[in-house]
Amino acid sequence: AVAVGPRTTGGAMNMISTPIPDALAANIDIRGGDHATIDTHLNVGNRGDRFSWLLETVQAQNDGFKTIDGPVGGDTGYEIKDYIAKFQVDSDPSSPVYQSLRVKLGYTDQLSNETYLGLTDEDFALDPNRRYAASANDEFVSEHEQYQATYVLDTDSFWRARITAYRNDFHRNWYKVQSVAGESIGNVLADPDTYAAEYGYLTGATSGDDDIQVRANNRNYYSQGVQANVEWAFAVGDADVTLNTGLRLHEDEEDRFQYQDGYRMEDGVLVLTTDAPAGSQTNRVSDASVTSLFVDSEIRSGQWIFTPGVRFEDIAMRRLDYSTSDPTRADGPTRVRENSAQVFIPGVGALYRRCEDWRLLARLQRGYKPPGPRRARDAG
Fold it and tell me: If you count Cβ atoms within 10 Å of the first and of the last residue's Cβ in the chain, which end, N or C, has fewer?
């Protein structure tokens, strides 16, 4: 987590995608199952002396296993389309210095007919796969684009270097039931007797206009930056030391442009009564720019492995709040919140190899979670 950072309270997950094969190869994995389930995984690639490549896709879909109340019903499954392309150009094998340019491109499209709306305890006991009629239009849609280019330099001596430029664009919109007749869905499901009328609307009884409020949690994100690191390998006495030093320049943004539509429940069917304009529920942009420096090391001596490290983060954050009646944001922000943080994040780990079957591991690390742009000032 020292090298990944800045958040160290949740650990880090190393998500490694399919590597380029050592020779021309193709793989296909197709699986089918209940509820019209089809999962397909295809990839093909080749490694050459100078040029290597990989093309890959995952296609997954099903109709879902839940049943929506009402005469219309609906699909409760999902459809995911994922594509990856990798290209690698290496220096001449006879060159004394190894150089490599590696490009990774990715695209993912997802539609999941999923809801926030649960069931009362009694209804769950009778049929855990039931969904109320009010959730018929609930769905999660997302789109992700990934761009990454890495340059590797290896002198075949005691050091090597790597620099990576990256960009991620992500859009998501979870359109889901937010409230019923002014009450939260949590309150209604926890006490359906007190909120008998509201419970009836959720399950299909005819309601008034706008009694069913459906929130569109519509958001756009991007993250981009450049990271460079140099790895050094040397010996100190009888210890082998690998030292990894790095610098990252990063920025990201979240754009919340949310709205909330109103529906009438009419004999188990949702009827749109208020088509709200985009941005009328939440209209704000949050961004951050970060400079990170880190030193991470691995020291091997006998049966011991030590991994001390430290990270420095300089973070500048900002949030721009716009009026919900100004979807074009032509009038500028109504409020600006700014904050900053500078922090050193140290950590050290130790592993003792007792024998082939046993290891003893311990780690001491500072827990850190970046703040938000809490400090507020006037937009002017």
Answer: C
Dihedral pair phi/psi, residue 332, rounded to 5°: 80, 175
Task: Dump pLDDT digits (tens) for 262-307.
Answer: 999 999 999 999 999 999 999 999 999 999 999 999 999 999 999 9
Q: d(Cα 163, Cα 341) in Å, to the nearest integer?
A: 25
CA distance 350 to 335: 48
Residue range 134-160, pLDDT digits in tens = 999 999 999 999 999 999 999 878 899
Evaluate if residue 374 carries a pLDDT over 80: no
Quote the pTM value. Answer: 0.89
Q: What is the mean pLDDT of residues 17-43?
A: 96
